[in-house]
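question for whoever is on the cluster today: can someone run the full assembly for these? two chains, 918 residues total. i dont have access anymore since they changed the login thing
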Amino acid sequence: MELKDKLVSSFLAFEENLDPNENLDTLRNEAIKNFETLGFPGKKDEDWKYTSLNSVLKHDYSVFPKKEDAIEYRDIKKYLIHDIDTYDLVFIDGIYSSHLSQTTHDKIDVCLMSAALNKDKYSAVIENYYNKVAPKTSLNSLNTAFAREGAFIHIHKNTQADKPIQIINFATGNESALMLQPRNLVVVDENSHVQIIERHQSLTDHPVLTNSVTEIFADKRAIIDYYKIQNDKSSASLIDNTFINQKGESNVSVHTFSFGGKLTRNNLHFYQNGERIDSTMKGVTIIEDKQHVDHNTLVHHIEPNCESHQNYKGIFDDKAVGVFNGKVVVEKEAQKTNAYQSNNNILANDKATINSKPQLEIFADDVRCSHGCTIGQLDEEALFYLQSRGIPRKEARGLLMYAFANNVLESVKIPEVKKRINKLIAGKLGVELGFNL
Amino acid sequence: MAYTEDDLKKELETKEYEYGFYTDIESDTFPVGLNEDIVRAISKKKEEPEWMTQWRLEAFREWEKMEEPDWANVNYPKPDFQAISYYSAPNKKPKYDSLDEVDPELLDTFKRLGISLDEQKKLAGVAVDVVMDSVSVTTTFKKTLAEKGIIFCSISEAIKEHPDLVKKYLGTVVPQKDNFYAALNSAVFSDGSFCYIPKGVRCPMELSTYFRINQAGTGQFERTLVVADESSYVSYLEGCTAPSRDENQLHAAVVELIALDDAEIKYSTVQNWFPGNKEGKGGVFNFVTKRGLCEKGAKISWTQVETGSAVTWKYPSCILKGDNSVGEFYSIAVTNNFQQADTGTKMIHLGKNTKSTIISKGISAGKSQNSYRGLVQINGRAQNARNFSQCDSLLMGNECGAHTFPYIEVKNKSAQVEHEATTSKIGEDQIFYCNQRGIDTEKAIALIVNGFSKEVLNKLPMEFAVEAQKLLEISLEGSVG
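^ ran it for u. tokens below:
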């Protein structure tokens, strides 16, 4: 049976097992109908022109994961940023693992989506924000229909989260093939600040497909730093849908580090509903073999005096395929917008491919919008220079590539995260980098 | 009283299309509609050989199976292809050697358009193959060209007199079933130009055609084929103006360029068809397929100044097949009022050491929409391919839009591809600076726009550059930012 049919037919059984306190019946039903009409996106879909889901969809995924699998902290320690104190939300096969997590309700709410969906205390927040910014695309609808667990983060007015929050989704080997649909909601009220690190990690060699939806709301003057670390096994694929709604003078930055996985698709959309908003999205992609990473970004400038900065760098080796599709829309009212977008790529192998489509759609006249896209190689002269100083070619290449990716790392605000990413990059490039950061 | 911006605006809004008039020449027009019989009739009318009739029919059959594309960033009422007459030719088929013998009414038309044949003959040394509603009326300088072995004639003449060449090259770059409009054109093309430059010959003058859409309700389907044999050079100009007309007119041309080893073709276009009035009524629909093929060491350079047409859908492309070949694209697209333009280029790098340059300047004013859509494709075997693209947009007023859709596909690690785009408006300080020096706002804008477009204007042959500059000014008047 096709995956789509399987999903649609299993929805009934899924519905029966839901918590009766939950109020999402209509939403789920509408969503599954929408998914049934739209189906999975195909090559004819302009947004999916360069990314085919066929190889990912052919597996017979189990849609309802069985019970929680026991994992010890020592097995997963290496996937956490463990050298700083953080709140942790750990999910194993889509189910919350209480003994690995650390939640709080002190000034800020860092807890489970299932708890938030079923308790009256949170109903106002859920009603106001749940499924409000995610567009009704087929994959979002699929997630809306089946999602029941994920992170729920609510930072109240004038509060600074005292430590960063880690959201980690593990997949274990109990099922032959597993499909996960995590759903996260982050609401940051006025004048508040939070830092979040998100990671998806497979612990099995069975195929895993994650279709994650994250909705982020930044109220006035809120500051959000969001880091996505994607360094999964080559059996795991990820479709990450993140939608951000910003109000006046808020500042949201999302860093995406894609080093692994079979197929990774990042849909990252910013909607600016207010003046003097700042949106930043940065990414480093270093992949090899037959890996495929697709960044699909959108910044929608709706009101005047806002800024957006995009900077994506990629290094592609072997038969890897990189896709960048960045879109900046500036509405008529959004005068004085300053939008910047750049996409730089290095192809390290003749079999590697890069498809880049930086798009601008501008309806306002008093704006400064620019984009740049380059595809090239390392400078032979720079390599020679380093070699002439006794640095072996391999290390020299590593150094130069590190330098190439470095300016994305500069804006990472958590030093431990920066250090971890640094280590990952060094590992990817096969060099020892003795930098102190 | 001082002349204010409002006055200027009013003046410009009421300004009618300068070249809007209609020449009353009896035309021999076919009934409306399109079917196999019409295709056969067109072919017969043009006294074409059987292979050509079959070629057209093949295209027609493919066309019937196709759907009109709708991916472009333009909105317009879909033309009813059964409500168009597919053939119209001036009744009196003149074949003159001198201008004196030409229908004086026709000559007057050209004079009002500013195309003075005598003047051009003298001043620019341009051989003009004038196409008035599809049929070639007069060809000048033919004899000079013939001495060099250059063939420059209408395509229908070429089909009759040089069938081998036409057979060999027609449809090799733009196949019949390439796209909806190319297929339509292949089936019903009425006329166009054919040019062949023999081996090692440098064409001594700029070749040029002027097109006009004249008869009401007739679509015009030109077919141009330029073949530059090894190590030859030709510069080809194409310029157009069309009379003011209320109903939309369809224009679906196909241009094929073939540059054999080490040949060079420079193809320049100035397009100023009726853009519709200020309410967005009327205007020409311009759906053009232009493509060039470069063999080893060859170079094709497209330069275009697009100021007219209600809807433009045009992507002059280069297939860089041979090693060391070069493709260039220089474009200025200006849209005002309700005009919509979706234009750009495709650079397909197949050979080694191929180079391409794209410079595109978009200027939108009024309520117009201006899009750049381009593709740069570096294939796996294209070692050391190099591309540089630059797309700049200038916005005037807050009711227009500028869009950029660049597609970049690279499959070779030695490729070097750069793309950059900017969008901005004319700075108030720039205008103030000019005002301060006694240059009025309108002039100041013209000046700044000229500077903005200089890179492209410089690529145009001299005669065209002057005309193009004038066009830019006319198209943009009244769009004070």
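summary bc i know u wont read the tokens: Chain B touches chain A through 36 residues (CB under 8 Å). The two ends of chain B are 22 Å apart (CA to CA).
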